[in-house]
Design goal:
305 residues, UDP-N-acetylmuramoyl-L-alanine:D-glutamate ligase, alpha/beta, nine-stranded mixed beta sheet, 10 helices
Length: 305
């Protein structure tokens, strides 16, 4: 099944310096990666973002077009396209430094959406984050809303400030995906499954926490479970969480669990279906980390895995 999705958030260029000193440029930004991943999986996706009418902006537009992702009006302006500089260590783990400003173009969302997704910097940096929260709040109950905090500590004064912002979005999201690194920074020493249970009790139908090579844990109405990740050779982790997110939303679409009419079923999710959803998302992330950059699978690759 193909879903109609709008993703709200930053689009930027990742300037990646590998452990051996080589530097490459990739299209990036967590929400944009999710939109791109959904497009590659065959969904009808539009991105609500902003970028400059410059060389980096052209790179982003070409990248999105290759996956069939449309830009909503107002996305391109005379400003500078945002940049994230990523350093990759010997284990393939990325750390980031950002140069960006974030605002949401004032445009009405299209009708008939199956899912509205946001997260990361797009849900952290004002004024864009405030607009993203208002969009999710207004859409709640009319479509499936989803959120990935993908916390960037550089944009917050403290974990407490970040947690307060995260919980605002959790309260209006039907589907939440976070990482164990997010939770370790927000709530040091907390058990990720207990945090997922707490967040799920605040409104979402489903909360999933990724754990890198250990897979993921998920909490829904019927309980909690863990899904292991396959043993693979990691090239880098750029875009892994975003590929997990797009894989999870894709799996929800395949199981007819997106959109207003599917919300009751999403809130009655049984453990067997929950496991299948998370397993698909784990496979999507596993494919991505075996190659450089934010390069999520297409439908053929995901099905073959």
């Amino acid at each position: 099944m193909s879903a109609r999705a709008v993703v709200v958030g930053e689009a930027l260029v990742d300037v990646v310096r590998a452990a051996d000193g080589r530097t490459t440029e990739h299209a990036g930004g967590s929400p944009m990666n999710v939109a791109y991943g959904l497009g590659r999986l065959g969904h009808d996706v539009s991105l609500l973002t902003r970028m400059g009418d410059d060389e980096h902006g052209r790179l982003l537009r070409e990248h999105l077009a290759a996956a069939g992702v449309a830009l909503l009006p107002g996305a391109v302006d005379a400003g500078r396209t945002a940049v994230a500089r990523a350093e990759i260590d010997a284990e393939g783990k990325a750390t980031y430094d950002f140069d960006l400003e974030w605002s949401v173009p004032d445009v009405a969302l299209p009708d008939g959406l199956d899912v509205l997704h946001t997260g990361s910097i797009g849900a952290a940096v004002a004024p864009g984050a405030d607009a993203a929260l208002a969009l999710l709040s207004a859409a709640r109950g009319r479509t499936t809303t989803s959120y990935d905090p993908n916390v960037r500590p550089a944009f917050f004064d403290s974990p407490a400030q970040a947690l307060a912002r995260v919980l605002e979005f959790v309260a209006v999201a039907d589907v939440v995906k976070a990482s164990d690194e997010d939770i370790a920074w927000l709530l040091p020493g907390a058990d990720v499954t207990e945090v997922a249970r707490d967040w799920q009790s605040r409104g979402p139908a489903l909360v999933v926490v990724t754990r890198g090579g250990a897979g993921a844990v998920a909490v829904g109405a019927s309980g909690s479970l863990a899904v292991a990740a396959p043993r693979i050779e990691v090239v880098d982790t750029v875009g892994a969480g975003d590929a997990f997110m797009s894989g999870l939303l894709h799996a929800l679409a395949v199981h007819d669990l997106l959109g207003r009419d599917a919300l009751p079923a999403l809130r009655r999710l049984d453990l067997g279906t929950l496991e299948a959803l998370v397993a698909t998302a784990v496979r999507s992330a596993s494919i991505t980390v075996q190659r450089a950059g934010a390069n999520p699978p297409d439908r053929r690759e995901l099905d073959a895995a």
